[in-house]
Design a protein that fits this description.
heterodimer, A: alpha+beta, Alpha-Beta Plaits, two-stranded antiparallel sheet, 3 helices, 6 strands, globular, B: alpha/beta, TIM Barrel, 7-stranded parallel beta sheet, 15% strand
């Protein structure tokens, strides 16, 4: 059966700039802390794109896990000891539609 | 119809208006239409005027709020008598069972707020919920501790919140979700706050209502009550003067 996915655009709000690796690490950590390894394994979380200029991170998650992803993203308060807030800017069923919405 | 969202518990340092301005601007960016901040009772009028105008610049609606932290039930009654008609929202931080019970049964109280993480110090049980349901008080849940705590402390908080939300639903006590943020970094979008409530098993429609319909209804009700035309629930002055036949 085909797994439905959703693409999330995340905006990183911080005075510092972070690489994709640090951001994905923070996302995975947030998922693991909130939902454990079992919950995180169902998330289907994957990095799709990182626009460093606009500080937008595009990730993919399983469509049933969007609310969990929102919750996990909301609990990120620090990356490498630097204060951050990460917000979900947009959610879409296709990457093309998401990029059109974001105009990137 | 587009949903209107409210965060009725932003706590900037009011001594620094620039800080308050930044938080107001962030609230607007995050998609809120109505915000409230607790004001000091001694000089609330000055702050209310300034904050109203800052919010207006950002296209936001501002509601004045007072957070009461009484030590006894008697003190709460005195505070309510003194301040109720000066603020659009009155929240009571329930630090003892006696205060929690008095706050729950007093119709002048809008929000019951339990700030303690330790579940022994949280008093929202069935008796509290029954009283609150009769007096129309809402259970306010601040999300800041949920965002900032980690490990066993967050686990204990989630467990307490799950029990409280369950009790509130059983007795039809409205739930209001606020950020409780002192800094911009702790502010979250309304849908993010709603998503966080799923961690303590609040269903999605109720979660959305907790950041939109419920807080808006409380502010609307209180504004009607505070208006000079209000006489009693259901009775409103519609005309005065000589042509009043």
């Amino acid at each position: 059966m085909k797994v439905k996915r959703r693409y999330l655009a995340l905006k990183v709000d911080s005075e510092e700039s972070f690489g994709s690796k640090e951001l994905m690490n923070a996302l995975w950590q947030a998922f693991l802390k909130l939902f454990g390894e079992y919950g995180a394994s169902k998330s289907g979380l994957a990095l799709i794109d990182h626009n460093r200029e606009k500080e937008i991170l595009i990730v993919r998650v399983a469509h049933k896990e969007v609310e969990k992803a929102r919750a996990a993203v909301a609990t990120i308060t620090r990356i490498e000891s630097k204060p951050v807030a990460v917000h979900v800017v947009s959610v879409s069923g296709t990457l093309k539609a998401l990029k059109e919405k974001l105009k990137i | 119809m587009k949903r209107i969202f409210a965060d009725l518990h932003l706590k900037p340092s009011l001594g620094d208006m620039e800080h308050a301005k930044r938080m107001i601007s962030r609230a607007s960016e995050l998609g809120y239409s109505l915000i409230a901040m607790p004001l000091p009772p001694s000089s609330y009028k000055n702050y209310a005027v300034q904050l109203h105008s800052l919010c207006k610049e950002q296209g936001l609606d501002f509601a004045s709020r007072l957070d009461l932290k009484p030590k006894t039930a008697g003190e709460l009654i005195r505070f309510l008598r003194k301040f109720r008609r000066s603020f659009e929202i009155i929240a009571v931080v329930c630090s003892s069972k006696a205060v929690a019970r008095q706050a729950a049964k007093d119709r002048r109280v809008d929000f019951l707020n339990f700030t303690e993480v330790d579940f022994h110090r949280r008093f929202f049980d069935k008796a509290e919920a029954e009283l609150a349901s009769k007096s129309l008080a809402a259970l306010e849940i601040d999300m800041k501790p949920l965002i900032t705590l980690e490990g066993p402390e967050r686990v204990r908080l989630l467990s307490a919140l799950r029990r409280e939300v369950d009790t509130a639903k059983d007795f039809h006590v409205p739930i209001v979700v606020s950020s409780g943020a002192k800094e911009e970094m702790n502010m979250r979008k309304p849908l993010e706050l709603a998503a966080l409530t799923t961690l303590f098993d609040l269903d999605k429609p109720s979660a959305i209502d907790a950041v939109s319909k419920n807080p808006l209804a409380i502010v609307k009700r209180n504004r009607e009550k505070l208006s000079p035309e209000f006489i009693a629930p259901g009775i409103r002055l519609i005309r005065r003067g000589k042509n009043c036949h």
